[in-house]
Amino acid sequence: MLNETAMAVLEQAGATEPEKRIRDRSATERAIVKAAKNLLAEEGFQNFGINAVARRAGCDKQLIYRYYGGLNGLVEAIGADLGNWVKDRIPEDAGGMFLLTYGDLMERLSLLFLEALREDPLMRRIVAWEVSENTEQVKRLSEARSKALGQWLDRMRGSLAPPKGVDVAAVNALIFASIQHLVLAAAAGGQCAGLALKNGKDWEKAATALKRLVRGVYG
Amino acid sequence: MLNETAMAVLEQAGATEPEKRIRDRSATERAIVKAAKNLLAEEGFQNFGINAVARRAGCDKQLIYRYYGGLNGLVEAIGADLGNWVKDRIPEDAGGMFLLTYGDLMERLSLLFLEALREDPLMRRIVAWEVSENTEQVKRLSEARSKALGQWLDRMRGSLAPPKGVDVAAVNALIFASIQHLVLAAAAGGQCAGLALKNGKDWEKAATALKRLVRGVYG
DNA sequence: ACTGTTACTCACCGATTGGTGACAGACCGG
DNA sequence: CCGGTCTGTCACCAATCGGTGAGTAACAGT
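ok -> structure tokens follow
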């Protein structure tokens, strides 16, 4: 794939084959990051390598080494955007107004998170990556992600007091763990622990079960 | 690695270097399967290939093609044992006697499953594999596993009536999903959604949170 | 003891991987 | 205009991958 500018030039000139690439470093960098993200989202981390990214970005892998210092740096660059994921993916004003209890809040946030994760293949791959490998790359991604998630939870909680006598951190970890595994298993095989997760009806069942689970602990 | 018999012979003879391999097909087959299991458990599915298995089994990869028809057949052979996992790993009489309600049962089973999964690296890798890839191999493993799990649940339930008005299948799927992701994340990075999971104390917290979650839905 | 089968090893294939050094051309300041 | 820097390309490296065909050594039956 060429730069957008390069494509425009070629099309305008009526050229049939890509001759030269426009010398635009920042555009190339963006193309590389975009290619890496798409590749990771579509193919998964299995075949995620320098060659594959360069091939998809339509540039030489040498540039990845030069601009990002290799795959590690590129992954790090991807992880840098991860902090804004929640902000980009979930409406900020989704809660806060009609949520009277902590249970209301967590039910809402759980469903929002479920929905957001379902619709973001890149994030799904990253989560799957986190539980499959333990390299330094993945650790960075994982930390960025969980940090952003925690901040999101705190921000949404606002001044709402969490229930006493309950290990909120542990319970919430379990809740979000269930959501993540459910979505990952569904994306991979269309089911989770025997529960089919394909059409919208299946997901409605899962959503009501999730609500019930959250309501069970948080009143 | 050589056959056990071969090792014995060599040691008895005082040989320092492995000269020949005993011609024992079934022993070699067992060595291959064992090597594959250990490799998968220790290294994960990332570097799980014909060459690596053969190297660890101490035999030529050609034998894997001959005896199992390639990696697929070998994985299938591994998956065949998976049906007995619950039986091997979890005490059969663990429930049934003092469990009066469905909530008692599920609390017990959840904790048993959590414990069993924590102590089985091979099974953890397989679960991680399931949510990371969608090949035919993995599908077979996944099906065998979820089938065995479902049968186990049914068997342990016995004649205990599940609560009405609750989508038991969906709720249980979420519960087991949470356990699986918790254990996987812990094994990979020592934490899950910001919750540390390293020493026994951490796991006690997680266990009580899990109990609370289960008790919340199932009275 | 000869023969055929079984168990096993070895050498090689093309493809792909991560990684590096050398080179060509566009751009910019002098 | 010239020289240096920046951007991008290409050729090549050793290593490893999955896969195959040919060959060797041990066994069993006769």
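Residues 136-157 of chain B form the longest helix (22 residues).
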